[in-house]
Amino acid sequence: MSSYSSSESEDGSVNGGDENFPPFCANGDLVSTRLTIVVGGTHFTEDKMLLVRNSDYFRALYRSGMRECSQGKIHLKSLGPKGFIIALAVLRGDMPILDADEIVEAIECAAFLQVGQLTKHLVKLIDSDNCFLMYHTAANFGLMDLYHATAMFIRNMYVELESEVRKTLPTELVTYVESLKPSVLVAVGAHVTCGANDTIHTDSRTVCYLDETENIWKVLTDLPLQASTSMAGVTVLDNKLYVIGGVDGLHKQVVEACFVYCVDNNTWSRISSPKQLRYNFSLVGLDGRLFAVGGECDRTLMSSVEIYDVITDTWEFAAHLPRPVAGAACTKAMGRIFVCLWRPMETTEIYEYIAREEEEWRLVTTLIKQQSYGHCMVGHKDNLYVMRNGPSGDFLRCLMDCYNLTTGEWTSLPGHFTNSRGALFTAVVRSDLVLTLNRSMTLEYAVEGKTWKPRRQMKGFPRSGTVWTFLMQLPDELMLQ
Fold first, then answer.
1. Cα–Cα dist 363/92, whole Å
2. How do residues 327-353 score in pLDDT, each as one tens digit?
3. Which domains does the chain have, with CATH numbers?
């Protein structure tokens, strides 16, 4: 975990500071200056703007007109210094991995100072070892976003955790967990557009989910007739399914129509199309936005990237990739987006999207191994798992390597991941479990450390060709159809 030093004179005042500086300019904007915060006897000297922009507590304080907002020193008597150090680390872009004591202090700080960025970081750290501590502590401090996220994590692993839940948690917390809908595995295959009378194709143009109790795939909804999932961008964001672009016909005519499916009312709606029509691209959703990465148009590879804002229904161009790519493996981990790019000889490069004043795709790491061409990349906590061809180009067996974002180290997972009747191209993470899918079987793995341990086998998705998988929470009325 990162910590930060403070600058303080012997008498406790801020070095070079003024105890009575005005906090705002004449137009009401906050003056950017240094501020001393005393937390549990420890003095921190920080940029006031950093605190005001990221903490509802400090924002309210400096808009209140109270005497404290004109002082150069503030005492926070209700907090411990460790939680404040963690908050500062997160606000500066660090991703500290926390032990039990640090988690408690971080939750207390996030709740008291209302630091949304710290809350989001805590959500990223939820795992089977700390979920009960996080859930109970978040309930005690009223940190509702973390409270819900942790309850959802527990709900998605309820088969494994139920006995411990009932022994460990108060009744009201158990009741809330059991009231949530678990995330189910949803899949859709590749289909082109079709006419209303094309019954041969319309019967198979469905989005399906796996009923794990009955071990059978059931139809969730039909695709819109104008929608194509062939070489399209398909993903789920905030429990809504998006289908962007794709192609139609042998000549790969780009489909302009884009759709979103809402499970709450079981309806499809049209949304705006990207400025640059594309197919065979990667689509990933994060923080209310969709990222359309690379792809092709008129059989030409592209490096362009567009971002779709769900609220405004608009697309804007983002930083280009370092080079053109189509069908790249793409994932998110720790609230960040990563993409695999390949180059001879047998080299996989992983880039991260950096959204700052000068946005860019920054090289994170390079993997050079035989058959290192990455088919699929999955993020779990601070690990990126890259699946690649098996030995001697054996497409029926995948090898897997893990890159840890915190340590910057690569490790190889032991054994092979068998993919009879087709290579494994799709996998999703559900709490501390991973679901992989092909025509023969759905395999569930438990992530323990950096190792995937087979847990159970279920029915495969009975469709040929490309398949997209994702998790969704479905209302009872849809699952009872």
1. 20
2. 999 999 999 999 999 888 788 999 999
3. 34-179 (3.30.710.10), 183-479 (2.120.10.80)
